[in-house]
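Project standup — Tuesday

K.O.: blocked on the structure for the chain from last sprint. Re-posting the sequence here as requested.
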Amino acid sequence: MTNKQHDNTQAQTHSTIPAHLKQVRRISPFWLLPFVALCIGAILFFQIIQEQGHTIRITFANGEGLVAGKTQVRYQGLQIGVVKKVNFTKDLKQVEVVANIYPEAKTVLRKNTKFWLVKPSASLAGISGIDALVSGNYITLQPGDGENEDEFIAETEGPIAQVDDGDLLVHLLADDLGSISIGASVYFKKLPVGKVYDYRFVEDGKKVSINIVVDKAYAHFVKKDSHFWNISGIDAQIGLSGININVDSLNAIVQGAVAFDSPANSEQAESHDKFTLYANFNAAKRGIVIDVNIPHTTGLQTGQTGVYHQNKQIGVLSELTSVEDQPALLQGKLLIDPMLSELFTSKTHIVLRNKKPGLADLTNLPQLLRGEYFEILAAAGEPQTAFTVIKENELLLQQPNTLVLTLSAPETYGVSEGQAVYYNDVTIGEIIQQDLNVDGVNFKVAIAEKYRHLIHQDSQFIAASQLDINIDANGLRFEAASPEKWLQGGVRVLAGKQKEGQPLTHYPLYKDISHAQVGITDANLTPTLTLSSERLPNINAGSVVLYRQYEVGKILDVRPKANTFEVDVFIYPKYQTLLTHKSVFWVESAAKVDISTQGVSIQATPISRALKGAISFDNIGHTGSKTLYPNELRAKSAGQQLTFITEDATNLSQGMPLRYLGLNIGEIATVNLDTKSNKVIAKALISPQYMSLIAKEGSRFTLISPQISAASIENLESLLQPYIDVEIGQGKGKTQFTLVQSAPRSNNKYTQGLPLVLETHDALNITVGSPILYRGVEVGKINHITLNELGDRVFVHIIIARKYQHLVRQNSEFWIAAGYDFNFSLRGAEVNTGSVQQLLKGGIAFSTPASTVIQPVAKANQHFLLQVKRPQDAQQWNSGALPK
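H.V.: unblocked you, prediction finished:
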């Protein structure tokens, strides 16, 4: 069988059978994905809900340093939240911060929890918030109590110290805060054991309460009887041994500090116990306490004002408080050495002394440096711990048989409460009290019992400055007591002439010895006479009145009237006989100035007169008046007056002296212009003894003033002050004269000279007064310079001295002589100079050309050409001429 057949047979055997397919139903794995996503979402949502935390709102005063999404909220150094939003409050006055707090920190969000912003800061007191330099500003908190809360108001500043369990909080009371600041350290035996927590006013602002926290490890060192004191700053004390400066730590200087000590046998202090904060270590020392009532004073300091007995310090003022409703009283406590408690008895006096510096204290420097202090005057008696302090000036009143007097004065004269009363330079009493009233001042004086016999009916009491300045005819004189009393002042007692009679209860207090001698108390003075003055004189109430430079009175009052000033004058009763109907008064000048060629002489009055002013009077020949003249000359020359008429008042001035033979005999009183005549009218006052001598016809009055030129200086003696020279005539009496203006004496020789006119194109090198030279000799001068009518030429008017007129001929030539001549040629340069005067002032030279026939003499006012340069052949002109 072939292969083909085999294949066909096999195909028939396996015929095709139709298949039946059946589909199986099942869930697709794709649907597992949504279910897994749902589970994961649920887990994440639950985790977000768990970690979302708690939202709170904190209100700050401003938003400085707060950044949303960045600023952290921290507690004890760990982040517990973050700021989500920073917005204004509704009124735009504050900032509201929305912050998210982590769930684990929700428990600190209580009602009394405090939040504040921490920022880095540095100062002398220290550095705070240093961790904020790295992480930026952050918000921190101090947990509080109360119910849960989610809205808070931030504190401006966080507390420096925090009171933890076991720490001891106590309160220190002080008069003032001193240099203590929050955060200052508290020391025990030089070791820091705590901090200053805060401070506040207590007792209506009369005290300061300083709260300190002592760490629990050191709280047992604080006892019920502990003493606290301020160790802030630098404590410097000055004494005989030098300057003692106590400085604690640098931190105590900058920030302040408090120290304390504790006795061993005392109970332990409890929280909120109160202690006194003493000013320094000395004030905190232990001792017995003496209660004192003190009259009000401003010089007491707790911890510094000392208590002394027999010049040795035994204690210190430890406390000082004011008394309500009694402003004149203070209450204090004295801390006294326990070994000296027996000094304080019912007979003891405590005296408040205020040592006033005096030169006598230079030998006792400890007392000089005390200031106000307490002195114990001990006496036997029953023990006592409460006293009323006596002022030093009231101590005498406590003594038996003390003589009490009253002194009255219109003013204090430098006397004050507490000063001494002296008799022959020995202290016999004291000024106890000073009272001011409408009429003046009253002083209450106490005289010690053993000196009361020195006071009599005619005794006089005088204010004693102990360094008196007295002014008399000899000028300024000093009167001083012994050196130890120079700065003390007080009252001096002068014994009366009779030295008898019982003491009076009231005496006047005199200003000085001179007032006492004439009986002037300044309380009942009435004017002896009243003077009038046209202008306000340089005097006032209190100025002295002099008679021939001797003080005889004083000025009581100066008051203005409609057209004058009235001056009330009081003449001491002892000298009123010097007044007559011929008395004239004038104001004394502060200084008399005499100017002459020998220099300036100034005669000054004593300093008291210069400061207060003075007037003088004298009895002269003519009838006196009640006019107060401005100076002595006007007073004595009243009615003795001359009148001068002049064209110009350039060198004329009020006060210019008139001199005869070098003596001042008067002065110019007024200088005025007469508008009708256009003349200057000057009035001169003449001393009476010279009036009849010079007021005559033929008298010549010449105004002498300096005449300075390159040629010469005239009238040198009038350089500092021009004056009027007097030449006496021989005619009848006359009071009106023409005042002659002075001129240089060199003008006299040209009075009868020959006038000539020189013509030139300009006058640049020409000066009026320059000399006219002939062969280098001055023979004339330039009188004046004018322009011609057309203005195209300059006319130089010169004048030739009479004795040299024949030298000017009609053919003479004139040229400008500048003082030097410079010629330059191939042979070299030639320089010729004249005199120094020619170099400074120049001039004009002339000469006549040589000729066989001499020309006639030039005529008056003849015109010549003024050449700029000297003619070339002028040196060979040797012609001359003889005078007729």
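K.O.: great, moving the ticket to review. Residues 397-523 form one domain. Residues 32-51 form the longest helix (20 residues).
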